[in-house]
Every structure is written in structure tokens, then in C-alpha cells.
């Protein structure tokens, strides 16, 4: 039976935002984009690249139950279901706060941040916990000043597990969003030189660590922090946690980590990890001895960095009292989202069985995630004897890493020294910053350099042979996703063969 309970009534939205509805209405969802709006949604007319008020009429024509606006757009019917507020973004934030406030006392809110792996870890948490209670999680990378309020505002009152992602581009962005989310558990994946352009003048990596640690500002009383143990800036994170008086669980390979990776085996299609963890309540004498227990878990995708994030998810599961068996089992089925390291097999010729592998990691890039992606490519085995060249190759297509600040040229050139490149036959470079890498590469690994992704996408048929495996990696703004699209169009993804990586 379909649940017809409204997400919000107009009266509830009025009470939360201080706005005034022209007439009563109920909404089943919330949308900020007419392209994805569903009948029954509340359309929120945010101002960004375009003013959302320009699309109110279209939203109502598509079946929006109402529209939140700061002024009445022209050419609307006199009885249009508008809810007028002084400021639309402030009203959405207030509605998000109301969404958080109406959760039951036994509900649990988890917030994730980090320089690398936020979205993948958020999706791991979703996969691991969705069978353990009514779960609501952020869509895509909705982690900024409108994404977090939107996620909270979309959250049904019956939610028992909420998983939020909190990001930043500049100092001072995380703490307000954390205070809005009021998580019971905050998880920091890692701290790396991402968005250095905004932090170089105020302390660089240490400043980024302090900004990430600001997620602890919003923790509920008796909140829990899950923190990486292996970083140069780990003492900054633990110091903030100590001053905040929160319970801290450390994960990683460091000997002092509460959840310690002992061994990680990466194959072409999976990651198998062993770890040591604290004993569960009542299990002090069980497996692992009196001081803890041994964990064995498997991910159906290769990547050592995924093992570390999965271990953080296991720590969160224990801390929140979730079923460890269900967590491990469901975590094993997780696959990364598109553009975040998802692996696909593209069929070129169904008769001959000719195909190549594609790793789509085109959404984001910084030095840490670039290194992890190259490690992943090195762990994947090409297929020999089926292509024109008869020897399958590992090929990297790398786009600019943006917002790295004054050291960006050196950071791009340094990729040439990464050990995994010894397993890569050819590197194609996209963007003005990647010219530094192209110049630093050995001549036998130096592929094309182009300034625009469109130029390399046009060369797609010449970039790949059957048996190859290609990594496409770069910051979203350099648009190497166009190369991914062009490579996909050379064939078709093989049914049942799209793999998470």
C-alpha cells in the first residue's frame, strides 16, 4: 500500500519558515530543479546560475503541489499555490532544521566529511545500514549550503537512520552545516590537499584539517567521532575531538587505531581485508582474544582506499549498535556511484566478444584521490590476445586537478613519480595544468596532451583497443566526463558486467 502521508503540509512549512501560503496544499517531495521535479513536489525557487523564480510556472505545469518563492513571478494564476518567504535559501535552511527537529529520539544521524571519499563513504553507509531501519541519505553530492538543508527538508519524519554529506570549498563552511545537521556520529574520511587555493594563506593542510574537524561542532551530546589514524594531521583532529569531549574511534593502519587494517588484498574484481577491532559488548572473551576481535570483510570492487573507508563504516556500525553481520554482508554489495570510480565493461563486438574496461572517476580529483585511482588502475588486469595490438594495456586519461593553489604545477608534475605509473602503458593529459605532468612523463608513456576534453573525446576511437582498461580521472570542471561518454559510445556496457570499483 502506498503511504499517502505528506512530507509536509503548507501549514507546517509556514510554521517552519515564517512564510505565508496563498492556499493550503500538501507536498510529497521537494525539488529545486524542474528537470527532475515529480508531481506533488514543493518547488523551491533558489537563486544560483539562474533565478528559480523563472521556472515556477513550468514547475506548476509539471504538477508541483506548491512553490516556495520570495516574490510572485509574472503570468501566474491568481490562485497559484505559492508560499512566500523573505529569503528562499534561508527558508529552505529553516525547513531543514525543522526536518531534523521532528525526528524521533531514537533516530540516528550520521554526517560524513573529508577531502576524499565523502560521497563513496556516504553510499557505503547507505548500503550497509538501509536494511537496519528506515534510512534517508543525501542524493549525489548534496553537501553544501543548499544541499544539506535540502537533504534534511526531504527527510521523512519516520526516518530512523539519516546519512548526510558535508563538504566545503572555503573556510567556515562546515561548522554551520554540522550544527544544522546535529549528527550523533561524525565521520572524517581523510584530510588531503584539496581546495588548497582557499587555504594556502591560512595554514594549508593544517587549516584544512581544522575545517574538517569543525564537523564535530554540531555533534549531539554523547556524540561519537570516527577519525582517520594515519595522517600527519591526525593530532589536529584528535585534539579538536578531545576539547569537544566526544568519544573518538580511530581507523586505519596505524598501530594505535581502534579499528586497524592488518592486511588488504586487491584483486581485479574485489578487495578483501582483515582488520582488528574492539570486542563488542558481551564478547570480550570471543574471537580475537580478550582485547578485541578480528574482522574479515570483502568488497565487490578493487581499491585499497575503499577498504579504509569500509573499515570506518564498520566502526560507525559498532558505535551505533547496528547488527555487525548485516553490516558486513550488505557492505559487500556496495558499488561506487557513477563518476566516482565505477568500473564498466564496454562491449565492442558481441560476435567476437571484443571488449575493454573503463574506470569512470571523472567527478573529482586532487593529489590523494589521483594516487588512489592510479593504484586501482595498476591492480586491474588488461586482457591479452583479443585486440589489434594483441597486448592489453592500462591507459590513464587524466584531467586537471583544480583549486590546488600556488603549488598546482608541482603537484601535477609529481604524478609522474607515482609508483603505479610503472604499470601504465600510456597517459593522456587534459587541461593546462596537466601539461606539467605530460612534460614530466617518460617519453614511452607520454600520450596526447589537449587543452580541452572535447578534443580528446573526438579521438576516442583511436584511444582504445580491445583488451585495454582505461582510467578517466579529473576534476569536474575540466569535463573529462565527455571522454567517458565518448568511450561508452564506442560500444555498449555489457549486461551484468558493470562493476563497482
Automatic annotation (TrEMBL):
InterPro entries from the UniProt entry: Mur-like_cat_sf (IPR036565), Mur_ligase_C (IPR004101), Mur_ligase_C_dom_sf (IPR036615), Mur_ligase_cen (IPR013221), Mur_ligase_N (IPR000713), MurCDEF_CellWall_CoF430Synth (IPR051046), MurE/MurF_N (IPR035911), UDP-N-AcMur_synth (IPR005863)
Domain Mur ligase C-terminal: 358-475
Classification via SUPFAM superfamilies: MurD-like peptide ligases, catalytic domain, MurD-like peptide ligases, peptide-binding domain, MurE/MurF N-terminal domain
Single GO MF descriptor: UDP-N-acetylmuramoyl-tripeptide-D-alanyl-D-alanine ligase activity
EC number in record: 6.3.2.10
Coiled coil: none
Protein's job: Involved in cell wall formation. Catalyzes the final step in the synthesis of UDP-N-acetylmuramoyl-pentapeptide, the precursor of murein.
The name this protein goes by in its record: UDP-N-acetylmuramoyl-tripeptide--D-alanyl-D-alanine ligase
UniProt source species: Szabonella alba
